[in-house]
Design brief:
single chain; 89 residues; 4 helices
């Protein structure tokens, strides 16, 4: 999963705009399901892992465009993570 996460982070940093970042985030979750990683809580753990990894990436020296993309991806993952938890109850 670590290699998968790094691949997604690199795609996010190189995204052309906000809509492309959104597609990458949504596709990453879809691809996670396709890789048969459907164990209980795997999706929520993946999203939390991505939030933390993207925050760490944000601390690196990024171009302005990459920093904006990373920030947008963090917002998307946080929103999806929150939705996932609200579906539990």
């Amino acid at each position: 999963m670590v290699d998968f996460s790094f691949k997604i982070i690199n795609q996010i940093k190189m995204a052309s705009d906000d809509s492309h970042v959104k597609v990458i985030v949504e596709n990453s979750i879809r691809n996670l399901r396709m890789k048969n990683i459907n164990r209980f809580g795997a999706k929520r753990r993946y999203m939390m892992n991505m939030i933390m990894a993207l925050r760490y990436t944000k601390a690196e020296g990024l171009t302005t465009k990459a920093a904006i993309n990373v920030e947008r991806a963090i917002e998307l993952f946080e929103s999806l993570h929150k939705q996932e938890f609200s579906n539990l109850f």
